[in-house]
Records
---
Amino acid sequence: MVEVLERTRPYEEFQTVVQAALRRLESEGIHALVSIHFYASPDSTEVGALLTFSDRDQMMKHICMISEWDEFRAFFGVIKPIDVRVYGRLRPEVEAWVRQFDCLNKTFDSHVAGFVR
C-alpha cells in the first residue's frame, strides 16, 4: 500500500507522533505488517508512506487494532490522507475502510512481474 498524506501540523510534531506510532507497531503490531516507511521533509507538507503486508487476510486485524490506539488517533490528527494506491487484492471490508477517507485512487489486483531475494 502506497499512501500520499498531507501533513497538517508542524514537522516536529508530525515526527514525534509518527515515531510513537511506529514504536507501538514494532512492539505490539501484527506480524503480517512486514515493513512501514515514511518519507517526509520539513520543507514540504506532503508525506509518503509505504506499508507492506505479507498476508492480506490480516489487514483488517491491523486496522481494528490500531484504531483503538491513542498513538494512531494522534497520527490521524496530524495528517490527512490524499492518495492511496494498493498493489494486491484487498478484502472488501478493508477496501471499505480505506474508501471512507475518499482517497483510494488505484488498485492493482495482480502482479505483472517481480521477484523476491
Note: The helical segments are 11-28, 59-67, 70-75, 92-99.
---
Amino acid sequence: MSEGHAWAPQRAVFVRRSLILGAVTFVIFLALTLFVTMGIWHYLVISAVLTLILFMEDFIRWRQVRDERWQIVDGQLIHDGPDGRAAIPLSEITSVKRRLGNAVVIKLRSNQRIMMRYLAVPAQIVDHINTARPPGAP
C-alpha cells in the first residue's frame, strides 16, 4: 500500500502554466482583434487587457488552492484545505485520471469530482493513488 505520500500545489507549476497560457491567449486575442479595423495599438491593448483578465482568474484560483495538502493515510485520501480537513476513503474512489496539464481529477462513487491542481508530477500522483486503492475497487 502507498502510505505516507503527500502532495501540494507548486508555485513553479502555476507560474509556468500562467506564462504559457498567457502567451497563447495573447496571440489568439491579437489574431482575433486583427479582424477589426483599428490601429495596431488598439490590437495590442485589447489583447493585453483580455489576457490580463484571464490571468487574474487563474491567480485567484491559485490563491484558493496554494495551501492545500493531500496525502494518503490509513486507507484514506486526506485533504487539508481552506475549509478544513476532509478524509476520503480510498474505497469510495472510482477513478483517478490526469487532466491535461498539471491536474488530477478524482471521481467518487457519488459521481462527485475532486480536482487536485498545479501539481509537479500528476502522473506519479495518479499511480500512487491507484496503487493505494483497495484491490477490486472500481
Note: Strands lie at 6-7, 69-73, 76-81, 84-89, 93-99, 103-108, 113-116.
---
Amino acid sequence: MSMTKHLTKPIRAIHFMVLAFLMTIGAQVSALNMNTGDVMYCTSDDGAFVQGSDNFELSRWPSQKFKFQITKGKGEKKIITFGSGGFFDGTTMDIVFFLEGGSILEASSMTAKLYLIDGRLNYAFASAPQTGFFIATCDKF
C-alpha cells in the first residue's frame, strides 16, 4: 500500500473545488450575452493599413471609437449597422454566425471580415485602394 494513497480523495476534492471556482469566474468575465437589438461600443486598440498610392507605405491605424447595432435584415437574415462618423460611417455587414444570447459574432461584407469574440473585435479588409486590419475592445451598455 502506498503511503500517499490516503491523500488521493482530499486532493481530488480540492482540484474539483478550484476547477469549479475558476469556471464560475471565467463564465462571468467573458460572457457578453449579445442579443438582437444590442448596441456595441468599441475602441480600436491597434492596427495598420496600406493606402494605395505611389509608395504603398504601411501606416499605423489611428485610434477609432465606433458603435454598431445587431439588427434584423430582410427575412431571417441579421446584420450589423454601424453608427455615423469615422471609418465605418453608416455601413452594414451581413452576420454570418451569431448565436442569440452568446458571445460570438462573425460578420462579412464583400471586402471585409469581422469577428467579435468575448468583447475582442478583429477586423480586416482588402480592396483596390487600400488594405488593413485592426483590433478593438467592445462592450455593450
Note: The CA atoms of residues 7 and 96 lie 51 Å apart.
---
Amino acid sequence: MCHDEQVVGNGRQGSINMYGPTSETMYLDMLLHGNRLSTSATTVRTDLVRKHGGFDERREFFTAEDFDLWLRLARNGSQFLFLHEILGEYTLSGMSMTANSERHCMARRAVCCAHLETHAESLETYRGRILGNSEYAFARALHRSGQHGRALGRYRAAMREGFVSARLLVAMALAVARVRV
C-alpha cells in the first residue's frame, strides 16, 4: 500500500505527490513513466520483498533501488493499493539523495535498461518509448536546473529514441531560448 505525500521544502508546503499508475499495467506504466511509489509512503510485506530479492544494490542503481524493487514486484504479479490520502511528508533537501537529479535520472535509466535486457522479448515493442521517456525525464531535470544546453542534448536523445510530443517540442524551444521550466 502507498499513500500520498505533502511536499515540503525550505519550511514551506509545496505540491502533493499522488502515487499510482496512470494507465496500462503497473509494470509497463512504471517503465514508461517512472516510479509510481514512494518508499517512505509504502508498506509492503517483508516476505514478499525477500521472495523477490529485496533492494538490488548495484552501483548504477544507486538512488533508484526502490524503483527496481517495485518493478520486480509488479512484473511478478504483486497487487498494489494506492490510498489517495496525505499521510506523510516528502521533504526536499539539498542533502537528500534524490536532490541530485542527474544521478537519479542515470540510475532510473540503468534500471529501465536492466529490465529491457532481462525481458527483451516482451518489451521490445516498448523499447523506444521506455528509453525516450527516460531521456525526456533526464532532460527535464537538467532544464529545471538551468542547464539548457545539456537539456537540449537530452531532448534530442529522447527524439532519437522515438519520443516525440508537443510537450517535448515546447520544452526544446524553451531550452533554446534559455527559459527555465
Note: The chain has two domains: 1-98, 119-181.
